[in-house]
Amino acid sequence: MVPIANMTKQSILNVKYVLMDIDDTITNEGKLPSDAYAALWQLAERGFHVIPVTGRPAGWCDLIARQWPVAAVVGENGALVFWEELGVIKRLYHPNAVDNGHPVLQRVRERILREVPGTRLASDQFARMFDLAFDFREEEPRLPLSDAVRMRGICEEEGAVAKISSIHVNVWMGDYSKLSMVTQWLHRTYSYEDGKKRDSVLFFGDSPNDEPMFSHFPLTVGVANILQYGHLMTHLPKYVTESDGGHGFSEGVTRLLSLL
């Protein structure tokens, strides 16, 4: 990773789509700071297609699609995408997404709650359609990262897919990811050709569940707090900001817009 100040005008000439994780990428301590929200508006007003790509649930995505300056929002780590079209909310679900009542997920739930003391389902679980989210750092008691790694191991032992974010361990059945839904939706909506247009995407992230995006797109930015997860990741972003979370996102957007 190199400092965001090293980003060049040449590298961003083809950027049309600015994608970002939400928690601890555009937020700080669970809140969306004013400079980060302003940065979303600045991007939209300059003609970029703004697309949050998050592990947050369907219920959150419905609100974001309605109220934020976004072209779409990808949620539940790629299970779905919501967007507004002519005043109507549209929804697309990944063909491989499986309802979160799947028996494997129920076994995972029972094991994690029994074997990892202090863990619990995330408080936004009621708004989810396809995954289970286990909270290890969003609310008290805050658990060590080692507990999140342990939870991921249990999920994988049971045959489920699991990803660690900065606050949750998300687990689901079905072969999909943030990346697979992003590329599917961009192709469907904008005739995006992945093999030819990867340099048209700029992605901001902060944690291991963003790794598929970091490995795929050449133009990626990690906000500074990504440094705490480096030992869990094989693919890191190209650039890193000086500031954490939403302030780092704002820093990155300021750099991008200064090069136009």
Written description of the protein model:
- The protein is α/β, with parallel strands linked by helices.
- It has two domains: about 1-95 and about 175-260, Rossmann fold (3-Layer(aba) Sandwich); about 105-170, Hypothetical Protein Ta0175, Chain: A, domain 2 (Alpha-Beta Complex).
- It contains eight helices and 13 strands.
- The protein has helices at about 35-45, 60-65, 105-115, 145-155, 180-190, 195, 210-215, 245-260, and strands at about 1-5, 15-20, 50, 75, 80-85, 90-95, 120, 130-135, 160-165, 170, 200-205, 220, 240.
- It has a six-stranded parallel beta sheet with strand order 1-13-12-11-2-3, with helices on one face. The protein has a four-stranded antiparallel beta sheet with strand order 7-8-10-9, with helices on one face.
- A hairpin with a 2-residue loop joins strand 5 and strand 6 (about 90-95).
- Helix 1 (about 35-45) runs parallel beside helix 8.
- The longest helix is centred in the last third of the chain and has 14 residues, at about 245-260.
- The two termini are about 20 Å apart.
- The relative contact order is 0.20.
- The model has no long low-confidence stretch (mean pLDDT about 95).
Count of helical stretches: 8
Outline: globular
What is the total domain count?
2
Q: So, the CATH homologous superfamily of the largest domain? A: HAD superfamily/HAD-like
Strand content bin? 15-25%
Q: Sketch the topology as an H/E string, one letter per element.
A: EEHEHEEEHEEHEEHHEHEEH
The share of residues in helices is 25-40%
Order of strands in the sheet with most strands: 1-13-12-11-2-3
Estimate the mean pLDDT confidence. Answer: 97
- Report the top-level CATH class of the largest domain: Alpha Beta
CATH architecture of the largest domain: 3-Layer(aba) Sandwich
Radius of gyration equals 17 Å
Named CATH topology of the largest domain: Rossmann fold
What about the largest sheet?
Answer: 6 strands, parallel
Model regions low in confidence, pLDDT < 50 over at least 5 residues: none
- Structural class by SSE content: alpha/beta
- How many distinct beta strands? 13
Distance between the termini: 22 Å
